[in-house]
């Protein structure tokens, strides 16, 4: 529909709404408001069409000369330097520099650079349930990834960008440099403080935050509106304390909020909080008490008009959801419980104030005075006795308010937490009550340490970080290790509707109790998730999950049993740091959850190479399989880590060798390799692979792992290779596997190759592809097609 027509519809419905308001017709007001909102949403979509991505005139993985402007300054980790380069307006690239000697150039905002780098288009893991990284980066105008040698960077004369952004980024980099100086011998505190205060995660190790994730306190570490609120409150209190007029103090706080938004990298949650702070300050300067839900609605409307896609962003939903819950549930609950007590604590020695307070506040003040008098009888001086009693009362009120806020926010945000992160923490109620105050105290103290270059304050912050780490560690120890697939749409909608019903003001108590019961029942169903996995009945299904350069296969057997063969991973060589992405947690598990899978019957690890078992520990934790199958293993560091994880979860390990077929899940499974006499080397090798043949009805599947020529020839010579309709091509289609003898003996109709998009290994090899084509094997590749799904009914095979 044209934008002009939609604009006319919005104006018309708005006029009708005003007329209905004049005639005092509530039903007409609601109907016209709903119609205007619907037309307004369509208008926003029409005014913000998706732009086609820019293109380069060279194919991926080509080395080209690039020239552009550094628009997001470099963040240096231990092994590489990353920055964002603007090649042209609206066309940016993420650049990763590597250095053999560890030296990196200084690249502040506005630096013009030229270098030769290898370019590739941003790419997703193409599985249902996967995070859409391409779209996420495109919203930041980032369309390419570039890798280059730091020694080849040439800084050009001149300057680019604008002065304001340059000044803000200068402050950002100065703050990061100061943190590097204050914590030069403390890698943990340095990385955590950079992430907590500035939003720079280059030095943040994933293992440091795992307990925060499991206990539902990770949000406290992420740059958010809470940081702005804490800094603004501290600054406002300080300025008022030194006698600055209210309006000037509010203006200073608003300017600080917007400055911090820039220093934090213009992250959306901070921008939204700065906008809310601005509205709050305007209201207070006009002697108005802003209502939190009205401020929330105004900020949300402004940001949705500016960028409608934010509605679908998890950060947007969680941020506004939390504030909405505070306004709808927390504040009314506190008004009926602790608010009268807080009012009673003000100037407790003034008895003349009692008559102006309500009954509960006055009674509370009297009881506290009696307690103070009791302490005086025990020879405690007046001032210490008053401070002790009021301090204890204030602390008790604070703890109660933290628990109430944590309870309602945890319950209200349970659905998006399960949808996006598949977590619902039981210990979050007490964990948040402990961790939030600690991390909130670190924010102003950390910035004061940066400003004053104070090692003492820096050490205080480090101690608070250690205290927070201890608190979440205690909670994580008792937190059940459970993960929850996303619920059906109807159940999520029912839970949301019940929450809105509870929050609705003009509803009788009986109806509210009914709504609470419905919400509790819906949440219980969401957590228990009694829904069966999405798997075909009386079918054998093989799914090659897109895990990049690695292997992960899901096998769904005819009677419903589920087996995962390998869990992908990113190879790490030498002493290099492991990447923060965990393929098992971030790629394989979301796909399994998207199919309503909570438990796996079998997890099989073909061999101990990172690209097959790097994500195995996360899969074992998330899906608690009944058994872990392996082939040849050795006492390597990699295998010992997996065996330890299985032992902690009480998962038995079963070592398989070549033998006769056995029934499993309504199909026949036969292990072909390793042989009974196979002796693995000291280090893991491709020929250690567990090779299985699965037969169902008249159809069969051969899963080869990374089996290479030596084992292939051994199986061919021993007569163990028979026809298979579907062949998982060995070692990602490399030249070292898929010998002519194997292809001729197996004579597959379909070949599945699991490999990474534009991988650096050159997989699959052209000779392997040619050999498959010569034999008229229909070949499917995850690098080109993403996830590949093969289903057999015992007679026919269908490939999706």
Main pleated sheet: 8 strands, mixed
Please list the strands of the largest sheet in the order they lie side by side: 12-11-10-9-8-7-20-21
Give the beta-strand count. Answer: 21
Basic shape: globular
Q: Helical region count? A: 27
**Rg:** 31 Å
Unreliable spans: none
State which percent range the strand residues make up: 5-15%
Mean pLDDT across the residues is 85
Q: What proportion of the residues is helical, as a percent range?
A: 40-55%
In whole angstroms, the N-to-C terminal distance is: 35 Å
SSE layout and pairing:
Layout: H1 3-22, H2 26-47, E1 62-76, E2 80-88, E3 91-98, E4 112-121, H3 133-138, E5 142-149, E6 154-155, H4 163-182, H5 187-198, H6 206-214, H7 225-241, H8 246-263, H9 268-285, H10 292-306, H11 314-336, H12 339-344, H13 359-377, H14 382-412, H15 414-421, H16 428-452, H17 455-478, H18 489-503, H19 509-528, E7 540-544, E8 553-556, E9 562-565, H20 583-594, E10 602-605, H21 610-613, H22 616-623, E11 627-630, H23 637-648, E12 653-655, E13 662-664, E14 667-673, E15 691-696, E16 699-703, H24 709-717, E17 726-728, H25 740-746, E18 750-753, H26 766-774, E19 778-781, H27 782-785, E20 788-792, E21 797-799
Parallel strand pairs: 3-5, 9-10, 10-11, 11-12, 16-17, 17-18, 18-19
Antiparallel strand pairs: 1-2, 1-4, 2-3, 4-5, 4-6, 7-8, 7-20, 8-9, 13-14, 14-15, 15-16, 20-21
Helix pairs in contact: 1-2, 4-5, 7-8, 7-9, 7-16, 8-9, 9-10, 10-11, 11-14, 13-14, 14-16, 16-17, 18-19, 20-22, 22-23
Features:
800 residues; alpha/beta; OB fold (Dihydrolipoamide Acetyltransferase, E2P); eight-stranded mixed sheet; globular
């Amino acid at each position: 529909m044209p934008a002009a027509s939609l604009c006319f519809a919005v104006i018309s419905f708005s006029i009708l709404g005003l007329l209905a308001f004049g005639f005092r017709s509530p039903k007409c007001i609601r109907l016209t408001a709903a119609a205007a909102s619907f037309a307004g949403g369509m208008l926003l979509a029409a005014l913000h069409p998706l732009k086609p991505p820019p293109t380069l005139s060279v194919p991926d993985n080509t080395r080209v000369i690039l020239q552009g402007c550094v628009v997001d300054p470099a963040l240096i980790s231990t092994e590489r330097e990353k920055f964002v380069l603007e090649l042209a307006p609206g066309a940016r690239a993420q650049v990763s520099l590597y250095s053999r000697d560890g030296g990196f150039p200084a690249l502040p905002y506005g630096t013009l650079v030229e270098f030769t780098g290898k370019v590739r288009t941003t790419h997703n893991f193409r599985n249902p349930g996967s995070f859409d990284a391409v779209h996420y980066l495109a919203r930041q105008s980032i369309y390419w990834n570039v890798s280059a040698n730091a020694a080849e960077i040439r800084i050009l004369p001149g300057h680019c960008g604008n002065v304001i952004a340059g000044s803000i980024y200068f402050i950002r980099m100065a703050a990061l440099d100061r943190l590097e100086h204050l914590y030069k011998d403390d890698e943990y505190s340095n990385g955590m403080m950079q992430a907590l205060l500035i939003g720079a995660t280059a030095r943040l190790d994933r293992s440091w935050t795992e307990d925060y994730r499991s206990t539902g306190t990770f949000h406290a570490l992420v740059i958010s509106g809470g940081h702005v609120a804490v800094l603004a409150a501290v600054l406002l209190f300080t300025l008022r304390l030194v006698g600055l007029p209210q309006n000037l103090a509010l203006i200073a706080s608003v300017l600080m909020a917007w400055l911090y938004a820039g220093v934090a990298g213009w992250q959306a949650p901070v921008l939204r909080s700065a906008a809310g702070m601005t509205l709050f300050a305007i209201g207070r300067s006009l002697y108005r008490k802003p209502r939190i839900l009205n401020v929330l609605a105004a900020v949300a409307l402004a940001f949705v008009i500016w960028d409608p896609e934010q509605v679908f962003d998890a950060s947007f939903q969680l941020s506004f959801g939390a504030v909405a819950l505070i306004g709808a549930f927390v504040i009314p609950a506190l008004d009926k419980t602790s608010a009268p007590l807080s009012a009673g604590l003000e100037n407790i020695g003034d008895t003349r104030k009692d008559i102006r307070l309500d009954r509960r506040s006055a009674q509370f003040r009297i009881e506290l005075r009696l307690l103070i008098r009791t302490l005086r009888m025990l020879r405690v001086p007046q001032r210490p006795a008053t401070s002790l009693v009021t301090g204890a009362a204030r602390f008790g009120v604070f703890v109660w308010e933290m628990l109430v806020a944590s309870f309602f926010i945890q319950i209200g945000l349970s659905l998006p937490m399960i949808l996006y992160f598949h977590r619902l923490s039981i210990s979050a109620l007490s964990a948040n009550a402990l961790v939030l105050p600690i991390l909130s105290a670190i924010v102003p103290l950390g910035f004061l340490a940066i400003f004053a270059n104070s090692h003492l304050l820096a050490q205080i912050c480090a101690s608070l970080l250690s205290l927070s780490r201890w608190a979440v560690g205690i909670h994580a120890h008792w937190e059940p290790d459970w993960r929850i697939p996303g619920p059906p749409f109807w159940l999520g909608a029912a839970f949301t509707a019940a929450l809105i019903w509870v929050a609705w003001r003009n509803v009788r108590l009986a109806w509210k109790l009914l709504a609470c019961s419905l919400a509790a029942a819906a949440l219980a169903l969401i957590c228990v998730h009694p829904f069966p996995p999405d798997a075909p009945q009386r079918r054998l299904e093989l799914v090659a999950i897109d895990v990049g350069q690695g292997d992960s296969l899901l096998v769904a057997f005819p009677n419903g049993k589920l087996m995962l063969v390998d869990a992908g991973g990113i190879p790490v060589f030498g002493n290099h740091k492991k990447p923060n992405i965990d393929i098992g947690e971030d790629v394989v598990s979301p796909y399994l959850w998207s199919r309503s899978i909570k438990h796996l019957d079998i997890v099989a690890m073909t061999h101990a190479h990172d690209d097959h078992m790097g994500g195995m520990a996360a899969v074992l934790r998330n899906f608690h399989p009944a058994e872990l199958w392996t082939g040849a293993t050795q006492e390597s560091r990699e295998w010992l880590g997996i065996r330890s994880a299985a032992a902690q979860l009480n998962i038995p390990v079963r070592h398989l060798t070549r033998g006769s077929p056995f029934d499993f899940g309504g199909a026949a499974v036969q292990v072909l390799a390793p042989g009974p006499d196979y002796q693995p080397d000291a280090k893991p090798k491709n020929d250690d692979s567990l090779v299985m043949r699965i037969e169902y009805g008249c159809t069969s599947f051969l899963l080869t792992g990374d089996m290479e020529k030596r084992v292939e020839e051994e199986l061919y010579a021993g007569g163990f290779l028979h026809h298979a309709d579907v062949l998982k091509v060995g070692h990602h289609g490399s030249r070292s596997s898929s010998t002519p003898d194997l292809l001729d003996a197996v004579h597959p109709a379909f070949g599945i190759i699991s490999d990474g998009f534009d991988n650096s290994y050159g997989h699959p090899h052209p000779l392997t592809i040619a050999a498959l084509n010569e034999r008229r094997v229909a070949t499917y590749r995850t690098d080109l097609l993403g996830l590949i799904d093969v289903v057999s009914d015992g007679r026919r095979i269908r490939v999706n």
